[in-house]
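Cross-check.
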Amino acid sequence: MPEQVSFIKIKGTVDGLSFYTAGGRSIVRRAYGPSKERIANDPKLIRLRENNVEFGGASAMGKALRLGLMVTKLYASSDLPAKVTALMRSVLVLNKGIRGKRNIELSKHKTLLNHLDCNSQTPFTNVVLPSFECSGDRNTASVQYTFRNMNPAADIRPPQGATHFQIFQIATTISDYHYNEPMESYRPINSQLNEAREITNSNAISLSDQSVDVSLVTTIPGITNLPEHVSLVHALAIAFFREDNNVHYKLTSGCAMKVIGVY
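Predicted model, tokenized:
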């Protein structure tokens, strides 16, 4: 596939050529397919319009999840947006209704999201080896996990140069999405409870420690008794540091994040 090597960065379609970024490279290809005008008006393309609308809804809900988890490039591989959009699309097609207007009801299919790894190149369970206990409480919008008798020297696989690590716990709420007729697009059923979040973290733990217990409780403030159409998503992340003169410098490699529960 041709690669754009000019210092001028172009995005979009120009004179029949499509410019976009993939894997950190600037790519150019010939634009194919019907025009936007034809897609919007041709009766023969009604199925395509329906698919486009539903894809937009799945993409919007996937973005809400990524924002709710506050996933950064340190914790995610480049394929995460597409992977999460596909996951939300799989939730959508399980619902009944008119094509192009079917609700995206994660609340009814929570197990599809459980165990989502944000970084396919660095899976969380390849970095953090021991098992842990986790739970969530919808009445208080809180989540909890506990590692017991962790031996960092044996149970954690750090990147080269790391001396310490931290565990982060994330709780976020994601509303189901429905098709909004006046806006002709998908919107969260409950926008106030969509992407609400809270993050807590452990202290910096030495990788040379022999046995530690790690436990965190994370509560999203101001929320109680979540309605049925809102899911409570629970994730863990790990980051590594190098200690130098009693200062911990965060490393850019080895980080991992995983959804460990949806309640």
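The CA atoms of residues 203 and 254 lie 18 Å apart. The two ends are 43 Å apart (CA to CA). Passed to J.P. for a second look.
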